[in-house]
Each structure stands twice: as structure tokens, then as C-alpha cells.
Amino acid sequence: MLQTSTYLDWNNSLDILNKAYEIGLFVLIIGPKGTGKTSLVREFAAKKNSSLESINFSLRTRESHLVGTKTLTGGTVGFDEGILIKSMKDGGILYLDEINAAEADVLLRLDEALDDRRQIVLKESSGELIKAHQNWFVVATINPLTHVGTKELPPQLLSRFPVRIRLEYPPEETELAIVKRYVFGGHDDKLRQGIKLANTLREAAAVEELYYSPSLRETISFGRLLDGGLDAKKAANIVFANVYAQWGNLEYQKVNDIITSMFGT
User: Fold this and answer.
1) Do 155 and 185 sit in the same domain of this protein?
2) Domain residues for 205?
3) Calpha distance 9→244 (Å, rounded)
4) CA angle at residue 61 from 41 to 152, to 5 degrees?
5) Where residue 122 sits, what CATH number does that domain have?
6) Which residues of the chain have pLDDT under 70?
7) 141 and 189 in one domain?
8) pTM value?
9) Of the residues 166, 198, 231, which one is the last residue of a structural domain?
10) How many degrees, rounded to 5, is the angle at CA 22 between CA 86 and CA 113?
11) DSSP H/E element including 129
12) What is the DSSP string of 182-229?
């Protein structure tokens, strides 16, 4: 059965990706968590009918995850290719998620493959020179430097992604249209309240009055709980308030007071 996409391209990011793809320029998507960066890349790959390899970077990501590792089976030495090598050979789309959370040695190895030559020496194995397929395309995402675990990208690596898309939280009416692609009930007014609450919390987090900024995933979850029969205030407490308890009762109470002011007692 044909499935309808739930992605809403509200700022024409797909058009920018298409243009970059056509002329062979790699793309960097910049924005906070939960703004649809991954959904955008998946939608683009689906529209291109292209394979999509992805890796989410963290402090635990190693060069071997990108390039590969030697193996020993039955006395025979082999080599398991990493995601970077597989993608370069396949010529599909490589998605580097949260690239600014990676360690310096990982970024240095990645930089080797991303320059204009689009090639890398497989020193871990036979020293083979791997040249990327002509259709190989790379999209990376970074979170703002205020996010835990992120760091500034080296200038030379940043220059490998000359096309930059800024993806922020959408306007409230646009966010409502996005949420309604995932929910089924006719409760637009309550959804608007939930989105307004999310934006209030985002604004507070932006000026460091709160520790956490809710994402689009959370406004969608709020709507789905409404679909499940929960009243709006209960759904708001579950999705938006309870997470703040990990920073103490004072933080939780701040958010709970905001919810009460918006949804009543």
C-alpha cells in the first residue's frame, strides 16, 4: 500500500538539497534537536530513490565505525568495511548526524574523504585507494554549541559543507500542520495550546531560565495522547512537565505552574 509522507517541507529545504545534489555540493543542516533534521534527510533520500547510510556521532564513535576493521575467520584475515567506505562505493547518500559531537581523530579521518578528490586511503587494510562513486552525496547535521557534548567544527571540515540549511522550530501554525499529519482527533484548539506551551518552554530554555527545550516530537506526542483520550492538562504534564523533575522540584514546579496557567487547575 502506498504510504503518504508525514514530512512537511515548510521552509523549502528539499529544494535546497536538490540543487546541492545536482551540482555535487555537500550540505550541512544546522538547528536544535527535534526540528526535523533527520526526517528531512530521510524524505530527501526517498524522493531520490537513493540508498541512505547513516551514523549518529558521539564520544564513542571511532575511526573503525567509519572505515572498518580487520577480521580473522578460520585463519583468514579479512576486512569489514565501515559505513563511510560502503557509502563511497555504493554512491548513495551518507547522513552524518550530530557530526560536531565526534572526536578530533574521527573528524580528521572523515575530512580526508570529503575534500574535492572524494577519496580515502584504506590504511587499515591493504592501503587501497577508495574513490567515491560519482553520485555519492553527503549531508551532515550539527546541534548548536549550547547542546551538551557538542563542539566547534574545525574550519577545514566546515568548508567541506558549503551549502548550509538553518532549521529552526517552525511558526505555530506550521507546527500545527505538522502535528496534524500524525494525529487524527479534531482538537485543534488543544493542539494550539500544546504548541504554545512548547514555544514558551523553548523561549525560556533559550535564555537559560529552564534546562530543557521540547522538540517537535513532543508536540506530536502531546497530540497523540489527546487522540488516546487524555485531557489536555494531563497530557501536557506527562509530555512537557515530568521531564523537568530530573533537575529538581523547583525546575519541575516552574513548568507545572506554566501548565496550570494555560490549562487551568
Assistant:
1) no
2) 172-263
3) 31
4) 70
5) 3.40.50.300
6) 1-4, 145-150
7) no
8) 0.87
9) 166
10) 35
11) strand 128-131
12) T--SS-HHHHHHHHHHHHHHHHHHHTTSSS----HHHHHHHHHHHHTT
